[in-house]
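Re: weekly structure request thread

Next one in the queue (318 aa):
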Amino acid sequence: MLSVSHHSSSDTTPPTVKNTNPADGATDVSVSASVYVTFSETVVEDVYFKDINIRNTSDNSVVNYIYNINNDMLTIDPISDFSSSSVTYAVYVPAGAVKDRAGNSLENDYVFTFTTVEEHTSGFTLTAPNGGENWPAGATKQITWSYAGEGCPTDARLSLYKGGVFQKVIVSSVTPESGTYSWTIPGSQAAGDDYQIRITSNTDTNVYDLSDANFTISKPITLTSPNGGENWQAGAAKELTWTYAGEGCPTDARLSLYKGGVFQKVIVSSVTPESGTYSWTIPGSQAAGNDYQIRITSNSDTNVYDLSDATFTINSSP
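Done, posted below.
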């Protein structure tokens, strides 16, 4: 008898919510804001997609909106503005609202809330970063804004937000008329795709503007090999490789060997970040072990670095 076997997709991992904008619990959301939900992978509509809703928590009224999915992002655009002045809204994404390309459905309901604020009149309009930019840590970037010439009579400050939460003041005083500030992003700044900049009057905190959407702070340099799982022989010549964003590591870098998370030695003291590769002949006397990593580090800012994501193995020479 001829038997036929049926094969299902090997992907059995359901999508999850990665982040939202506004962030859960945000308290300064514009009444004209749109709502964004980013998933862990590309998703499409599922059986309960139309049950997604936004409700006013005070009277349980449902907000009328239009929505669409683009790859991993769900965009919810209210047809009219939210109610102003400290109204809290709940966004409900039910289990089974979306599914991934393998057919795995969102397993659990996801609910988050945010609160609106009165629309502010501001002489400011932040123009960069205003959403979608990718700025490497360690790079120097221009924060820019336009100014109407009134509404902020003295000075202003620039602040960094991540996931809608205040992180730090970038600079405590800028002249509103200048329209620009040169910001060297700390090399130690955590990578993330949910950053915003806010410019705020120092004399009236109701006068401000915030990036319209999130921008990304990324690693300027990323080690690609060895990045975990490789099996290399002592005495062999191997290529250490990395990618470079083109900024954030302005001079040169060094490559170092770690074992068990402990520094062992500098492999080479200076490589050009743009080169992306270095040929390393592993010493024949290198101790065998399965807990090695490589680190590439900027020589001008040691906070700018990347390390193998996982350990690799060096075997003894034959």
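The chain has three domains: 17-116, 124-218, 221-315. The mean pLDDT is 90.
Next request, please.
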